[in-house]
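Model the whole thing, not chain by chain.
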Amino acid sequence: MTPELMAVENIAFTYETSLVLEDLSVSIKEQDFIGLIGPNGSGKSTLLKIMGGILKTDSGSIKFKKSHVSKINKKIFAQSVSWIPQDHPMVFSFKVSEIIMMGRHPYLSSLSFESEEDYDITRRAMETTMTSHLADRYFNEISGGEKQRVMIASALAQNPKMMLLDEPTSALDIKYQVQILNILKNLNTNHDMTLVIAMHDLNLASRFCNRLILLSEGGIVRDGTPEQVLGKDILEQVYDIDIDLSNRDGHIIVHPVIRNQH
Amino acid sequence: MNLRSYSTTLLIFFLLLLVTLCITPLIGSSEISLARAFSSTLAISNNVDANILFQVRLPRILLGALTGAALSVSGAIFQSLLRNDLAAPFTLGVSSGAALGAVIAIALNLNFSILGFSIISLFSFSGSLGAIFLVFSLVRTRHGEFPTAVLLLAGVTANFFFASLVMFIHYMADFRQSFTIIRWLMGGLNITDYNTILTLFPLVLLGISVLIFFSRDMNLISTGIHSASSRGVNVWKIQKLGFITASLITGAVVAICGPIGFVGLIVPHIVRLYVGPDLRILIPASALFGASFLVICDTFARTLIAPTEIPVGIITAMLGGPFFVWLLKRKRPV
């Protein structure tokens, strides 16, 4: 059995007065490639932020390799877990190489300059994500797909065991969606990276992930292989639309059923 | 960034300041001769040239340098921490709080000094502390971050509120007080001595050093608070420290010089065009360039329609505005 990397135990989270997550537990194993699916507002982003140590829960606990995350130094935790937001609004004109180097922050002290080792690590991160040619460009001037790859490179520079990505493909065209997911698949299979990715595209999730977690109204309604999770009844209930399922090359394809409105 | 390019860039900005500090004391409404100023045959009390140089011009120029440095660094910090191009040292109400303090002291006809500081300066500094306290007490959050939109709104509101009180007191004041108030609000470097500079210098230097020490953390915050937090930055702590340190050095210089505008907004933008947005270099470079910038502006203020002086706050925007537009057209936008 693969060892457990992160254990989320009975967490609850409220924002202002509304309950976002309620009594949620999940166990993440090493080398999992998890697709976090569910409707808008089901709590995917919040769960990722909690797992990334960004938000504090009201109750329950998060353990990383059996130690409580709340007791791990933030910088030490960031050496193992990285988080990538959905979009990257940038007020100032940082260069791509500077953005990627920011991934080394957990390893650097306040007044030190980056070492040759730091440059090597960011160079490798750029190669893995095919962003080497962008190094001297300004982050604000590259395309959405390139930005997403740069942010993955920056997260890789943290040398993490586990990466959390909040809808990395939602704003991209289909070519870049597949490109990003292929990069992540490569990290998962060849670099032992554990991945948790919030996604909206159920078909891509079913094609790339080896485990899906379906969230609805702040709780997990199903957790398992794509075949186990993508059931007609549960999807119709969670998404509140009619759904047809088909199968292609052993992967489930989800079709929303569109009725003509009169 | 490596040590070599870092020190080369800073050296250039340092040389600029050095040249400015060497040339500007020689410019002024009355001609002075260096030979006579340093003459050993004249007694210092009879040496007019030496008196103008060392008692009038030099302290004023040093005060200008300190003020320019403090306001520029503070502007760079506010822009980065609020992730807003239009932020300036006065955005969160520091200057209007200071103005209220000064105006109250003027209206009450208070006119004495404590420990070498005029009561107006002390009231003004208390006013800026009050403004900082008020604005930050309005912002409460449980998720370990400053809601920047709320902070900006609180700052703008505080600015308007204090400004209306200043106007009310000004309206009630008599002619003599009214003139003093107007002159204070315009800002200027004309009243100073070495004692003030010796007190201000360590304070501003300490503030800038603290900000440089946390510049890497603030870089990450300037790209987004959540990603900064996910990389191990204690966002709440660093933001609070940055805001309060920048506000304190701003409050300190405003208490002496009044609210000199535009420097804190525009100098970080000018410097960013050349060194980029990385605060590790932007902070020291803004300090050095801001110091030169204000000293040069003040030299114009002293000489443009000599012997009458123009308040330097008028010159900063009059010179700085067109200069910045010219730079923007030459280089890519920040």
